[in-house]
Amino acid sequence: MAHIYRDDLIYPDLSYRIVGILMEVNDALGAGHRERYYEDAVEEGFKREGIKYKRQLYMPVVFSGKHIGKYYLDFLVEDKIVIELKRGDMFAKKNIEQVYNYLRVHNLSLSILAQFSSQGLKFKRILNTT
Is 22 in contact with 42 (CB distance < 8 Å)? Predict the structure, then answer.
């Protein structure tokens, strides 16, 4: 069966593959685990699917040539999509802002914020439009 993708999405093929792995992890593990366990399972999915990624990637925040802070991304996939994993039933505003800052500071276009909840997997595509 042919895949039908929206043509207005950034990185549609890779995004669909990532979300498929996230859904598989959610179906297998369900809710209530530590974020680390979800990360481990997602990493196994990336390996199996041959998706290039960096996990817990250190990313410095620099202003005027000075190091002023640091972030650790859960995953950076193919050097272009930030994946941030959370657990719980609601997206927190601070998590959305956190992911948006990752994109802005490092000039990336897309993040997928995944929430493993008691109602199943929830995810948001967050775009850097600046």
Answer: yes
